[in-house]
Write a structure and sequence with these properties.
5 helices, elongated, Arc Repressor Mutant, subunit A, mainly alpha, 111 residues
């Protein structure tokens, strides 16, 4: 990561920690206050647009969570779908695991 990206990232984290809206002008102000000279204004604009309307603290807390595409089954969902739905899900997971196996490809890691 370049110094420009790093400086802009830190500036965005400072603003988020203070609960201040992240804008390109505020990012540039923080970067200049830190006396970092080699940051082009495009970085501030890019970071501000990327983080617009997003909760940075929430993003940091959910790093590596997979984006939340699949919701965990709840007791209400199990009651509505019954045991058959749970069994179908387990069967699908087993089929996917078999497809991803290296054994089917005919070679191993150290061949």
């Amino acid at each position: 990561m370049s110094n420009a990206e790093l400086a802009t990232s830190y500036a965005a984290l400072i603003l988020a920690d203070d609960g201040v809206e992240i804008t390109a002008d505020k990012l540039q102000t923080l970067i200049k206050a830190a006396k970092i000279e080699d940051v082009e204004p495009i970085w501030s604009s890019l970071f501000a647009k990327a983080l617009e309307g997003k909760d940075v603290k929430d993003l940091l807390l959910n790093v590596g969570s997979g984006g939340g595409a699949a919701a965990a089954p709840t007791s209400g969902g199990a009651a509505a779908g019954g045991a058959g739905a749970v069994e179908e899900t387990k069967e699908e997971e087993k089929e996917e695991a078999k497809e991803e196996s290296d054994e089917d490809m005919g070679f191993g890691l150290f061949d």
